[in-house]
Amino acid sequence: MSQLPVNEIFPTLQGEANWAGTPALFVRFQSCPIGCPWCDTKHTWNKLPQNVVTVPEMLAKVADAPTYANMDEDQLLMVINDDKSSHVVLTGGEPAMYNLDELTRGIIGLGKTVQIETSGTFEIRVNHNTWVTLSPKIDMPGGYKVLASSVGLADEIKMVIGKMADVALLKDLLELRMDHPQIWLQPVSQSPKSTAICIDVARHHGWRVSIQTHRFLGIR
C-alpha cells in the first residue's frame, strides 16, 4: 500500500469555481515543482525528510508549515469517513504527482464526492467519477508543460488571469479539445486590473469568473 505525504487535512468551504460554497474536507498533499510566483502554499513545495511528523501532529496543525505526515489510503479513508463533509477536495502542492486512483475510489465508496485540483503538468490518476479541476500552470519557473491528457480529463478549467496574454494561452489549450468544459477565469490576487480583464473576457466568451470567496468569508 502506497504512502502519501499529507501536509494538512481540514474542513472548510470550497471557495472557487463550480463547487464554490460547498462544505468540503480539504486534503492537501506535500510537494510541488511548478514554482508559481503567486503561490499561496509555498510551504508545500518541498518534501524534506526532516519535516516528517506523526499523523496526530499533522492533524493538529493550525498554521501553515512545511511539516507533513506519510499516510496510506486506509488511514486517509478513516479520517475522511470521520468527517461529516460529503465533498472531498484533493489539493496541494500538486496532488497529481501521486497515483490517487485507489484513494478516490475509496472516497466515492464512502458515498462522498471527490475533486482534484491540479496544474495539469502530471498524468491524472484518479477514479473516473472524480471531478477534475484543471488550473493550468503555463511557462512557470519549474519548466513543466501542461499535458494534453490532463486537458482532456478536465471537468472545469480554472485559469488564473493577470493579463490578456494569459487569455491567449487559455485559448491555445482549448484547441486540444473538441468539446469545452466549464471555463472559469480567476483574477490573480483579485487585483482590480486582472478582475476587470476577467469580467470583460467572460462576458465576451460566455465564460465565468471565479473569485476566492473563502477569503471574503475569512476562512481557509
Describe the structure.
With 220 residues, the chain is of the alpha/beta class. It has a single domain (3-159), classed as Alpha-Beta Barrel (TIM Barrel), CATH 3.20.20. 27% of the residues lie in helices and 23% in strands. It has seven helices and nine strands. The chain has a nine-stranded mixed beta sheet. β7, α5 and β8 (182-187) form a beta-alpha-beta unit. The longest helix has 14 residues, at 192-205. The two termini are 31 Å apart.
Features:
about 220 residues; alpha/beta; 9 strands; about 25% strand
Q: Look at the structure and give the mean pLDDT.
A: 93
The CATH class: Alpha Beta
- Note the total helix count: 7
Beta-strand proportion: 15-25%
* CA radius of gyration: 17 Å
Unreliable stretches = none
Question: How many discrete structural domains?
Answer: 1
Q: What shape does the CA trace take?
A: globular
Q: What name does CATH use for the topology?
A: TIM Barrel
Largest sheet: 9 strands, mixed
Helix vs. strand class = alpha/beta
**Total beta-strand segments:** 9
User: What strand line-up does the widest sheet have?
Assistant: 3-1-2-4-5-6-7-8-9
